[in-house]
Amino acid sequence: MYDSDYIVTNDMTLILGVLVNVSVVPLQRMDRFLIGETLEQVAHVLNFPMEDFFVRVNNTSIVLNSLSIIETDVVLVLCHNVTVSGALNDSWLIPHGTQFSEISHLSPFFRSSFVIFNTTNSDNVLYGSTVVTKDIHCTIVNVTKQEIVIVFDRDSITKETIEETITDLVELPCGEHLWVDVLPQDDNTFYITVRWSSGEISDIIDSLRDCVRT
User: Fold this and answer.
1) What is the DSSP string of 2-19?
2) Quick one: which of 29, 79, 87, 195 is 20 to 30 A from 166 by CA?
3) Helix segments in 16-151, DSSP class H
4) Which of 186, 151, 146, 185 is nearest to 166 (CA)?
5) Numbers of helices and strands, H then E, in the chain
6) What whole-number distance in Å separates Cα of residue 139 and Cα of residue 121?
7) Over 80: is that where the pLDDT of 199 sits?
């Protein structure tokens, strides 16, 4: 590209065109492109992989593809598809780097009566601080929660032992899930939170106490 101060020193063939500004967020990258260039060319220059993102025009619902033509100044937003099922069924294009707590539709579910987890791996619980870095399908379930405190008279008990013991005690109905959080203290006290998606195993705490006594 040449500006008005460029000095011609030999024969040249020039392509005339109108330049537009293209910005990409959240990468905070910007460059100037000729009207008529494609999004694929923009991605190459601004160095982002098209296959990793949905590219949306800022403040609109317009999603571009690799052959989309750049025609005006534009801000492009790199997004991922977040799909939820269970207590809520919906799907959104969410900007890369967004925390789950910033997704307004999910706000009612970040409390103790719900668990949001990765549908492909129920052990992967998603919290408000979870950051969107790729497409994800998550499930929202209403849970029953029970908390207990256990004090052991020996030092050999570990957090992992308690988690495994509780998991082994529970026979979950098909399609249901269990989450165990154990917080050990320095005096052999353990704060235990058990959450499950079925209301049919409320005797788990009594079973755990019986196990501890033996």
Assistant:
1) --TTPPP-S--------E
2) 87
3) 39-46
4) 146
5) 3, 12
6) 10
7) no
Q: Residue by residue, what is the 3-state secondary structure of 137-177? A: EEEEEECEEEEEEEECCCCCCCHHHHHHHHHHHCCCCCCCC
Comparing 198 with 18, which gets the higher pLDDT? 18
Contact by Cβ (8 Å): 147, 120? no
Confidence label for 208 from pLDDT (cuts 50, 70 and 90):
low
> What pLDDT shows up at residue 155?
73
Confidence class for position 15, pLDDT limits 50, 70, 90: low
- Return the exposure string of 152-165: e unless at least 16 CB atoms fall within 10 Å of the residue's CB, then b: eeeeebeeeebeeb
Which tokens sit at 75? 């801000």
Vertex 165: Cα angle to 164 and 166 (nearest 5): 95
Cis peptide before 26 (omega within 30 of 0): yes
Residue 145 pLDDT class (50, 70, 90 cuts): confident
Please give the structure tokens belonging to residue 122. 């129920």
Both tokens of 51, joined, read 């296959």
Amino acid letter, 37: E
The continuous run of DSSP H or E covering 205 comes out as helix 204-213
Question: pTM (2 decimals)?
Answer: 0.81
Q: Which residue has the tokens 């049919």?
A: 200
Which of helix, strand or coil describes residue 90?
Answer: strand
Q: What percent of the chain has pLDDT over 70?
A: 89
What would you measure as the largest C-alpha separation in the chain, in angstroms?
A: 95
Structure tokens at 10: 């030999």
